[in-house]
Amino acid sequence: MNSQGVMATREAADEAVRSTCDDASTCKRFASSQGYWRDPYIQHFVRSLGERKAPEINRGRRLLLLLWLLTNPGCGPDRYYARVRGVNTLLDAFVRRTQCNCQIINLGAGLDTTFWRLKDENLMPKKYFEVDFPTIVARKIHNIK
Questions:
Q1: CB-based burial of residue 105 (10 Å sphere; 0-12 exposed, 13-18 middle, 19+ buried)?
Q2: Whole-structure pTM value
Q3: Which of 13, 25, 45, 64 is exposed most, by the fewest CB atoms within 10 A?
Q4: DSSP conformation class of 23
Q5: DSSP-assigned beta bridge partners for residue 103
């Protein structure tokens, strides 16, 4: 494959990764609106709920729902919730264990609102960095302003 073909393939792969930002943000906005967790900041990055929702939220299998309700009362049955809850739990434990004397590097941050959640919960690390594609970072900065 020539260098132009490699660049085109790389650009297509990058675009696929960049598109996950919108998917994740839409899922987070929907989950927050349904009470899965509280996120007062996501509305500033995703304006409308739209009709796009995570399939696990809409079409959870009854057995999975039953297992979740039995083992986690009050928790939603979707895997996205479990992922967000798991990452938040580990992150909070790490920041508490270090007494906020740490740094967090959020790779592929997208339109993530973790910085504000940590700030609201008095769990700000000494340093907090977000890394993503320049177009995603520019979009986030625009929304913040």
A1: exposed
A2: 0.71
A3: 13
A4: H
A5: 127
Residue type present at position 138: A
By CB atoms closer than 10 A (0-12, 13-18, 19+), residue 58 is exposed
How far, in Å, CA of 18 to CA of 104, rounded? Answer: 21
Q: Which residue has the tokens 């609106």?
A: 33
How many residues in total does the chain contain? Answer: 145
* Total Cβ atoms within 10 A of residue 65: 13
